[in-house]
TrEMBL record:
Its main location: membrane. It is found in: Cell projection, Cilium membrane. Keywords: Cell membrane, Cell projection, Cilium, Glycoprotein, Membrane, Transmembrane, Transmembrane helix. One of its GO terms (biological process) is regulation of protein localization. Transmembrane component of the tectonic-like complex, a complex localized at the transition zone of primary cilia and acting as a barrier that prevents diffusion of transmembrane proteins between the cilia and plasma membranes. Required for ciliogenesis and sonic hedgehog/SHH signaling. It comes from Cinara cedri. Signal peptide: none annotated. Pfam families: TM231. The keyword Glycoprotein applies. It is a multi-pass membrane protein. This is Transmembrane protein 231.
Length: 215
């Protein structure tokens, strides 16, 4: 014989406690964590179901006061070479004066402007036909990714006519070949030197090795 419910009644139990009691404080903490923890999880995971993300950051670029000047002259057997690097290369000390000024125009702790003046000393019988100037910089980003490396700026100019002055104005561009895989907890530092002079064709070798860098 089957039975049927003919009457039912629900009972509710409420527990009350003063605001300053341990029970109320525990209740308030649990309630806050119930709402706050999901937001913290979303924030730390950079969003839910995130597949692609882009962001912009101004890197910290600082001139390391390391440079190399290679000038070809009308005397092809005697180029003018100067720079401030270890004496592993025979130089001509043709750079009599170098002046460097870095400016932080918007006072954000990062330099936006570099003024470099380099004076080349020659005699009256030699004409300068081409210039190759290599400048070494420190490159660093740190907001979303801790990444530091030594980078190079190359200035090349050649002419069939001799010249006595060269003015160069431009912006530094970052050439990135591969996406960066890093985080704020695992920094990446590339300290491989760029100016290496072991090879007889050291200038070509510097260009070749630097072009092979993936970052």
């Amino acid at each position: 014989m089957s039975l049927r419910v003919v009457y039912s009644k629900s009972f509710g139990v409420k527990y009350k406690a003063p605001i300053c009691s341990k029970a109320f404080i525990l209740y308030a903490v649990i309630t806050l964590l119930t709402f706050i923890l999901p937001f913290l999880f979303c924030y730390r995971s950079n969003g839910l179901w995130l597949k692609y993300e882009t962001y912009r950051e101004q890197p910290r670029v600082q001139f390391k006061l390391q440079y190399l000047l290679y000038a070809e002259t009308s005397d092809h057997t005697s180029p003018l070479i100067c720079g401030n690097f270890p004496r592993t290369l025979q130089i001509t000390d043709a750079c009599s004066t170098i002046k460097v000024i870095e400016e932080d125009t918007n006072i954000d702790g990062k330099n936006e402007f570099l003024d470099l003046e380099l004076y080349l000393t020659t005699n009256d019988t030699v004409d300068v036909l081409s210039i190759a100037l290599l400048l070494i910089f420190d490159f660093k980003i740190q907001d979303m990714c801790l990444f530091e490396m030594e980078s190079m700026v190359v200035i090349n100019h050649s002419s069939g006519l001799p010249g006595g002055r060269l003015n160069v104005f431009g912006d530094l561009d970052l050439i990135q070949k591969l996406p960066l895989v890093c985080s704020t907890r695992r920094p990446i530092r590339i300290n491989k030197p760029i100016l290496l002079f072991e090879s007889p064709d050291w200038l070509v070798n510097i260009y070749e090795e630097y072009s092979k860098r993936t970052r």
